[in-house]
Amino acid sequence: PEAITVSNLAKIICVRLAPFERKLRSLGIEYTTHDHLLNSEEASLIAMEYDLNPIVDSIAAIDLFPKAMPKDMSIYPLRPPIVTIMGHVDHGKTTLLDALRKTSVAAGEVGGITQHIGAFSVSLPSQKTITFLDTPGHAAFSAMRARGAHVTDIVVLVVAADDGVMPQTLEAIKHAKDAGVPIIVAINKIDKHDANSRKVRDSLMRHGIELEEVGGDTQCVEISALTGKGLGELEEAIITLAELNDYRAEVDIEAEGVIIESQIEKGKGNVATVLVKRGTLKQGDIIVAGTSWCKVRIMSDDKGQSLKQAPPGTPVKVVGWRETPNTGDEVLQATDEVIVGA
Ligand code: GTP
Ligand code: MG
Question: What does the similarity note say (predicted)?
């Protein structure tokens, strides 16, 4: 009983029979006709070739392939880390985002005028890219979390060196910890005469942030969002953490993403910024989000450049929505307009 036919296994793995049979032959399996019975050992071996984690059930033979199995991601391309900036009121989040955005324009492609689309990408001289969510603050973070949209890879915690750790600093730490998102500390306003970064560090450590200087793994960078000091180091810290965590995503599958923001624009109708998480979003694709759907008419990046394709980690403004979707809505690609219209 612990056996499965070639065609049934192909069905479970979701591959067509012809390439499947070729695969079996390449694995040294002699008989590959559709009704040939494979024993559980063979079937497991084959399933693993397709990145699946088979569970062999002794009664029902092999029919249980858990969907949410941990996958070996190392075969997929790297994607940009997605970063949210958080911190107490007036500690300099907006100023920091503006400064980072300017470096993105300066490094810039053609055009050079940034569009506010709720997220933007910074290309570093090293060819690496960081995507920043431009809708910082606890409300946006919580809204997305509540909808199960785990968009952020990294939280940059801004703490003003002249003001120190404040209630919303602690709130941000809690949010990040609850979501299991690593923190990089940016001690801001170090240009100020009353800046006291030592005090900030001590205070953070008392609140459970394990800084590198005491053998922890939280990086801490001193910056001035106003003068631009330390911004390169902050970007480096983000890249270091991204390399450590090895963020990757499939590019050749149907697009998945999340709505960052949406609005109605004159002459364009309903527009929404989509952050692509997996797969590649293409012009002409049909996507759904919440109760709304969209045939992607026009896509543009944060510099207003129109795009035909958006790989993982890319924020794009998408025109063509029936209604404006909500921030935090999950975006999925539909295979057929008929299905969506039904
Ligand atoms: P909210 O959005 O209200 O929470 O504030 P925020 O965190 O976005 O702070 P914002 O960027 O608006 O900065 C608050 C004030 O601090 C502004 O007057 C900034 O010019 C000033 N500021 C921000 N960064 C620096 C810095 O590095 N040095 C100095 N001296 N001032 C700064
Ligand atoms: Mg602000």
Answer: Belongs to the TRAFAC class translation factor GTPase superfamily. Classic translation factor GTPase family. IF-2 subfamily.
* Whether residue 93 lies in the annotated active site: yes
Residues with CB under 6 A from ligand 1: 87, 89-95, 188-189, 191-192, 224-226
DSSP secondary structure letters along 157-216: EEEETTT-S-HHHHHHHHHHHHHT--EEEEEE-TTSTT--HHHHHHHHHHTT--BGGGT-
Q: What is the pTM of this model?
A: 0.77
Give the pLDDT confidence of 89-110 residue by residue, as tens digits.
999 998 999 899 877 655 544 4
Collect contacts of 125-128 with beta carbons under 8 A, ≥24 apart: 126/239, 128/80, 128/239, 128/242
Exactly one of 91, 93, 175, 277 is catalytic; which is it? 93
Alpha-carbon span 193 to 128, nearest angstrom? 34
More confident residue, 7 or 107: 7
Helix pair 167-179, 138-146: axis angle to 10 deg: 20
ipTM above 0.85, yes or no: yes
